[in-house]
Amino acid sequence: MAEKKVLVVDDEIHIVYVVAIKLRNNGYEVVTAANGAEAFELACAEKPDIIVTDFQMPAMTGLEFVEKIRQNEETKDIPVILLTARSFAISKEQEQDLQISGCLSKPFSPRELLENIEDILYQRAVVNREA
Amino acid sequence: MKFRRDLYVIVTGIVAVSLFIGALAGWLDAGTEEGWRFVGYVQRAPVVLVCYIIGAVGVIWLGWYWLKLAGGITSIARRLKKETADCRLSIADCKSKIGNRKSKISNIDELSEAIGERIDSYSSVIGELEKQIEDLQIQIQLTQRQKRNIEAIIYSIRDAVIVIDEFDRLLMANEAAGRLFNFDFRSSQQRPIGELVFSEEGDAGKNEFVDILRQSRQSKVRATRREIEFSGKPQKDRKIGTPEDGKSRTFDCIVSCVYDERGQICGVVAVLHNITREKEISQMKNDFVSQVSHELKTPLASISAYSEMLLDGEAKDGRMRKEFYSVIQSQAQRLNRLIEDILNTSRIESGLIKVERAPVSLTILIEEQLQMIKSYAEEKNIEIIAQKPIVFDRVYADKDMISQVIVNLLSNAVKYTPGGGSIKIETEVDETADIARVSITDTGVGIPEDEIEHVFDKFYRVGANESCAKGTGLGLNLVKQIIEKVHDGRVFVASEPGVGSTFGFELPLATRGAVEAVV
Question: Which residue from A111, A119, B53, B168 lies 20 to 30 Å from B139 (Cα-Cα)?
């Protein structure tokens, strides 16, 4: 089975680094970006299987980034996990509208993040197989 | 009559003279020689006879005259008697009339007595009324004084106060209300409030205000409280109703009904308290709490994640473990700095902070803080250019506080400088002014000119740069507080958007004597 590709987006270099190590150690290919604009370019170019993005970032917020990838034909179906330091930052309606697959609050557990990613990718694989 | 009386006197005189002469002639005849000589003369003429004749005629005439006179007297007496009787009748009549009059007078007396009594009672009533009028005048004076006091109070209130009557006409307004709605508050009395306040240009707040006034009066609710926002859109053709500065403002509007003695609403009082600034501060505080929680959680997230990675054995080798420990340490320091910023801001503002002053070298402090910030700068590939320590740059200051100032300025410089940029740190001593000056110049994003004056304000974040980096808006405010409030120094800033910024501070030099004494 080919390595699943994860795009990790956060302006905090330490967070990107730790998530990348956790995922790489568990067999994932990781691409990283420090802001929304850079992340969108990478998402279009790399077509990751899943995106893990911070909510509050300079230049473009996590929500704006997700809105942008949902509008793009090539990236609109990529599942997204949102990392946020702000409680109640987004509503359930926003989550549904933007098809956000998961939302983890900072401080988060890399272990839990990994489990989330695996669950989402597994469900997606099941759905694709059934389709 | 007069002629008769004169005639009677003359005749009487003639009779008397004739009789005298006759008598004298008779007496002399029987007397002296001289008498004789005289008589002899007289006897030559018939004087005596004539005299006696005249006398006799005179006596007869006098007798007739007296009889006539007596008859006249009787007639007069009769007439007098008749007249007397008439008079008596008249007197009786008069007496009767007088009696009647007296009776009338008696009635008049009674009447006048009654009138007098009435007048007395009226006088006492008038006295009471005068007293009441006096009291009323005093009360009117007091009321007028109270009115003037109330007017003075209302005019001096900074909140806008508007009083309208039951027909929605302006009774009273103060200067603040005049300023708010742009009408002359002294000459606008009796004008309909809708005309003064109503906005045709769609300022919903003003129209809402007029509606609230009307609704309060109609619904008879004693007091209503509402928050109203005036958009402050300038109006095209009319000045009335346009706020002077055209800025949007929020008001806490309290509307109370005024009741008359019958319990009917006779007016409405509205007080508009400008809460724009309070709302802004409240919003800033909310943003601050949100921002601080984010800022606190970010290093905490790193500490938590790296600790878990170490516990899960995700670090493959010793070098990686060391790297993880290093991240945990640096993030813990970052967290500590942030907490210190928050606490120190609060302590300085409350005056509870303990200041431990000692002579400290600014360049040595800068060197120490550079070690902390170096790794952060290296992450972004930012070059730091620091000068070598200079001879005498000691200031008499709290070392920890000045360290915090330096680290805040340095971390800001790194934060807002794009990768590949540089930060230059300079320390100067101006012995003439007796000050030491530290300047930190970056090649960062810079600050727009209209925002420069606010960069040291609490919670303020430069709008254009918010997307560049996160922050609480506390760091620079703390720098200003420490330098200016605690150390009597001065902060300064110069910036050009897209080119970079220079932040710095000046502190009074420690006197050489004080330094040597401490050393």
Answer: B168
CATH number of this structure's domain B158-274: 3.30.450.20
Do the chains contact at A109 and B304, CB–CB below 8 Å? yes
B293–A15 C-beta distance less than 8 A: no
CATH T-level assignment (fold) for domain B285-346? Helix Hairpins (1.10.287)
CATH number of the domain within which A91 lies = 3.40.50.2300
Q: At what angle do helices B47-156 and B2-29 cross, to 10 degrees?
A: 140
- Chain-chain contact of A18 with B305 (C-beta, under 8 angstroms): yes
Mean pLDDT by 10 residues, chain B (519 residues): 69 76 64 57 61 76 80 82 82 80 79 83 86 92 90 87 88 86 81 76 71 81 83 51 61 89 87 88 79 83 95 92 92 86 80 83 87 81 80 83 90 87 89 88 87 80 66 82 90 90 90 53
Chain B hits for A12, CB-CB cut-off 8 Å, are 298, 301-302
Measured between beta carbons, the chain A residues lying within 8 angstroms of B293 are: 85-87
Distance between CA atoms of residues B362 and B369, nearest Å? 11
Total domains in chain A come to 1
Domain definitions of chain B by residue range? 2-150, 158-274, 285-346, 354-518
Residue B217 and residue B195: Cα distance in Å, rounded? 17
Distance between CA A103 and CA A56 in Å, rounded?
13
- Report the interhelical angle of B276-311 vs A13-25 (nearest 10°): 30
Rounded to an integer, what distance in angstroms lies between the CA atom of residue A78 and that of residue A120?
11
Q: Which fold has domain B354-518?
A: Heat Shock Protein 90 (3.30.565)
Length of chain B: 519
Q: Give one DSSP letter per residue of B378-412, joined into a string.
A: HHTT-EEEEPPPPS--EEEEEHHHHHHHHHHHHHH
Residue B25's SS3 state is helix
Task: State the DSSP string of B364-377.
Answer: HHHHHHHHHHHHHH
CB–CB of A108 and B301 under 8 A? Answer: yes
